[in-house]
């Protein structure tokens, strides 16, 4: 989620002025509370459709985020024209609007088994628990927790808190109804290990970059990624399960659990095996995203500035910074 929504034009100033930043956070909290209250009053499918329309209208007004989305998509799909990329950006915003509109309905979704197709033909995590369940930010990835609960798999979910602490509390409260423990992604390894030793599986979305990590090739370019989930699976002997969420129609989903990934070279050292697991996982992500790019929410900077060549950006109808720049912009 963007650091500022209504106050997006004041973002540079707000980062220098703590009082302004706190005021804008409160303003955005009020906006999100109002939006969630409205969506809660609607049937879930109607709320999802309204969220899609609002996302498609409001999202493009967040110009910095829209530009970042387009840069990511231009790198992933260099063959797409500028108009095609603009359409994908709008679809990303529609997907984001749906996800937000579905938050106040997570409790209803948890008890409505008719809204989920749980495809366990390739892998049933209930037979492999505890396990590590990995996803990309596709469709409404939050509902993986609901799917695991419906399969009777005790689990915890790692998440990245939004910058706005007030919105973080709102979303955390909404997620709490899914029947799983929630852990912020940073500084939670010990709690995670303890919970897994108690028999809990863990679910996390890992297609985004981290500030400090290991290069994993994603759409032909290196992206810094965490090795934590792979190392955790290797060290504890847990299955490493790719999991895909597809939106079928409105708030109806298919959750597919894929066969566990194993290292190509079982005799390699732990780091090399962990890199191999994450690389195989990202190749799986690529195939899903290419199949349904409109369901991918890539709203964070994934690659270093300058990753796309001039030829790539011509197709996108915009330019990015020169290839010599390798530092991430932590503001993204």
TrEMBL record:
Keyword Secreted listed: no
Organism, scientific name: Chromatocurvus halotolerans
Lineage: Bacteria, Pseudomonadati, Pseudomonadota, Gammaproteobacteria, Cellvibrionales
One GO CC term on file: plasma membrane
A family per Pfam: Lip_A_acyltrans
Annotated compartments: Cell inner membrane
Keyword tRNA-binding set for record: no
Gene Ontology MF terms in the entry: acyltransferase activity
Domain of life: Bacteria
Coiled coil spans: none
Main location: membrane
Keyword terms of this UniProt record: Acyltransferase, Cell inner membrane, Cell membrane, Membrane, Transferase
Region of interest (Disordered), residue spans: 308-332
One record GO biological process: glycolipid biosynthetic process
Protein name as it appears in the record: KDO2-lipid IV(A) lauroyltransferase
């Amino acid at each position: 989620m963007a650091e500022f929504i209504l106050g997006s034009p004041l973002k540079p100033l707000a980062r220098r002025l703590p009082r302004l930043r706190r005021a804008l956070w409160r303003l955005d909290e009020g906006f999100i509370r109002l939006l969630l209250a409205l969506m809660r009053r609607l049937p879930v499918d109607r709320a999802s459709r309204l969220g899609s329309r609002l996302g498609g209208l409001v999202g493009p007004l967040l110009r910095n985020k829209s530009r970042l989305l387009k840069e990511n998509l231009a790198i992933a799909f260099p063959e797409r024209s500028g108009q095609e990329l603009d359409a994908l950006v709008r679809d990303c915003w529609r997907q984001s609007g749906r996800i937000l509109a579905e938050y106040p309905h997570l409790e209803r979704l948890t008890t409505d088994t008719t809204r989920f197709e749980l495809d366990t033909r390739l892998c049933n995590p209930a037979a492999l628990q505890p396990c590590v369940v990995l996803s990309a930010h596709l469709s409404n990835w939050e509902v993986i927790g609901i799917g695991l609960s419906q399969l009777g798999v005790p689990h915890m979910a790692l998440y990245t808190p939004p910058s706005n602490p007030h919105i973080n509390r709102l979303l955390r409260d909404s997620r709490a109804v899914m029947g799983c423990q929630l852990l912020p992604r940073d500084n939670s390894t010990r709690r995670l290990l303890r919970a897994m030793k108690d028999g809990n599986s863990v679910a996390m979305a890992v297609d985004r970059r981290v500030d400090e990590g290991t290069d994993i090739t994603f759409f032909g370019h290196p992206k810094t990624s965490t090795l934590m989930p792979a190392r955790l699976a290797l060290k504890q002997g847990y299955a490493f399960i790719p999991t895909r969420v597809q939106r079928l129609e409105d708030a109806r989903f298919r959750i597919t659990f894929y066969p566990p990934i194993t290292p190509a070279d079982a005799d390699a050292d732990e780091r090399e095996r962990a890199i191999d697991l994450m690389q195989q996982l990202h190749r799986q992500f690529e195939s899903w995203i290419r199949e349904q790019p409109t369901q991918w929410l890539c709203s964070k900077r994934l690659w270093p500035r300058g990753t796309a060549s001039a030829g790539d950006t011509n197709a996108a109808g915009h330019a990015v910074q020169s290839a010599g720049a390798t530092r991430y912009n932590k503001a993204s």
